[in-house]
């Protein structure tokens, strides 16, 4: 028995050191070694696609720390072996495996419960989210074709910008493949909520962890609509405060792009927000009650086919989508502006696949 365990341990270590060694992968020892290590905690299988990027690396680090994760697959088109080796040394429960290049995409996806997608190019100064569109649209399409084939029942957390267009792209790919479940496709807008909580807490002079700001609409510029009239704890803002907060929340991404002065976009706070959201999805999958987060989903809250609002997360994904609730005049005007821009971005995504 002991020699088998020793062999398995050696195989596991070899798998980390030589992730693309196909001869090793074929061996039956490794097949067994891919199972949970003996005595390991039960949990969920999570894949991060774009794991070597600016968001992907801190996101991988934080997911390796999450006790709900038992297996963590890291996929990218470059540099995954290094990131995998590095993160695999962390003494937490999740077993880490790296996948490099498109020929390994299907292996990375097979059997996963949750897929997190930060893949794509980041925003640089002077670049709009639409400038990203042509590059990132193609990347998301390829990845989603893989998901439809290898793990059609997984919950998908889509981070790749522009989210307002990439979520409709993903939906169209899944529809074409006949695997589309609108409850399981979630555009990650959590960073807008994280920023809103932080900026509102600054104005109120309280701990941001005590603040909850619903942010609805989309995930770019004026499509981001913080509902400051619905902030918890209940409070009221002057017209100037409302204008300042709304603008700062909408322009949070640009604030970071400019501050980094060509050295990147919001990667660290994005990774934090993505992990906060992914953790909520995993708690939903586990069957926890009352898990409510904002996300950009297929929706009937407005006349648009997709919209971000509060959703209740459960075993099936977004099991319930909440209405917007009472809006004040400022928010009603903001909603009309948001919908106008959002409609065009959604259509752009749909047309990319249907063209």
Task: Tell me what you see in this structure.
With 355 residues, this protein is an alpha/beta fold. Helix content is 46%, strand content 17%. It is built from 13 helices and 11 strands. The chain has helices at 2-17, 22-26, 28-33, 56-64, 80-88, 105-109, 133-150, 163-177, 190-204, 239-250, 252-260, 268-286, 329-354; strands spanning 44-49, 69-76, 95-100, 114-117, 155-158, 185-187, 215-217, 224-226, 291-298, 306-314, 317-321. It has a 6-stranded parallel sheet with strand order 3-2-1-4-5-6, with helices on both faces. The longest helix is centred in the C-terminal third of the chain and has 26 residues, at 329-354. It is globular. The N and C termini lie far apart (59 Å).
Ends distance: 59 Å
Compute the number of strand runs. 11
| Topology pattern, helix = H, strand = E | HHHEHEHEHEHEHEHEEHHHEEEH
Rounded to an integer, what's the Rg over CA atoms?
21 Å
EC number: 1.1.1.37
Enzyme class: oxidoreductase
GO molecular function: L-malate dehydrogenase (NAD+) activity
Organism: Forsythia ovata
Entry keywords:
alpha/beta; EC 1.1.1.37; six-stranded parallel sheet; three-stranded antiparallel sheet; 355 residues; globular; single chain; 13 helices; Malate_DH_type1; oxidoreductase; NAD
How is the secondary structure organized here?
Elements: H1 2-17, H2 22-26, H3 28-33, E1 44-49, H4 56-64, E2 69-76, H5 80-88, E3 95-100, H6 105-109, E4 114-117, H7 133-150, E5 155-158, H8 163-177, E6 185-187, H9 190-204, E7 215-217, E8 224-226, H10 239-250, H11 252-260, H12 268-286, E9 291-298, E10 306-314, E11 317-321, H13 329-354
Parallel strand pairs: 1-2, 1-4, 2-3, 4-5, 5-6
Antiparallel strand pairs: 7-8, 9-10, 10-11
Helix pairs in contact: 4-12, 7-8, 8-13, 9-10, 9-12
């Amino acid at each position: 028995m002991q020699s088998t365990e020793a062999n398995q341990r050696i195989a596991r270590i070899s798998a980390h050191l030589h992730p693309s060694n196909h001869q090793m992968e074929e061996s039956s020892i490794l097949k067994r070694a891919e199972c949970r290590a003996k005595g390991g905690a039960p949990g969920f299988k999570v894949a991060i696609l774009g794991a070597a990027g600016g968001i992907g690396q801190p996101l991988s680090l934080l997911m390796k720390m999450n006790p709900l994760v038992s297996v963590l697959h890291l996929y990218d088109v470059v540099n995954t072996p290094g990131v995998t080796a590095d993160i695999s040394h962390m003494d937490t429960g999740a077993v880490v495996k790296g996948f490099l290049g498109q020929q390994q995409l299907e292996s990375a996806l097979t059997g996963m419960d949750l897929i997190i997608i930060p893949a794509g190019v980041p925003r640089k100064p002077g670049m709009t989210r639409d400038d990203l569109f042509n590059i990132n649209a193609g990347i998301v399409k390829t990845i989603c074709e893989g998901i439809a084939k290898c793990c059609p029942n997984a919950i998908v957390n889509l981070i790749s910008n522009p989210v307002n267009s990439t979520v409709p792209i993903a939906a169209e790919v899944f529809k074409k493949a006949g695997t589309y479940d609108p409850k399981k496709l979630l555009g990650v807008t959590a960073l807008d909520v994280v920023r809103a909580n932080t900026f509102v807490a600054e104005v109120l002079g309280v701990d941001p962890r005590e603040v909850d700001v619903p942010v609805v609409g989309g995930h770019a510029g004026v499509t981001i609509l913080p509902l400051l009239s619905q902030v918890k704890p209940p409070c009221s803002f002057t017209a100037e405060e409302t204008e300042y907060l709304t603008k700062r929340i909408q322009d949070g991404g640009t604030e970071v792009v400019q501050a980094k002065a060509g050295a990147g976009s919001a990667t660290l706070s994005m990774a934090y927000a993505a992990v906060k959201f992914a953790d909520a999805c995993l708690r939903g999958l586990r069957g926890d009650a009352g898990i409510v987060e904002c996300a950009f989903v297929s929706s009937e809250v407005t006349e648009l086919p997709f919209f971000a609002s509060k959703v209740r997360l459960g075993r099936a994904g977004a099991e319930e989508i909440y209405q917007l609730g009472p809006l004040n005049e400022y928010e009603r005007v903001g909603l009309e502006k948001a919908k106008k821009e959002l409609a065009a971005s959604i259509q752009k995504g749909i047309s990319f696949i249907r063209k």
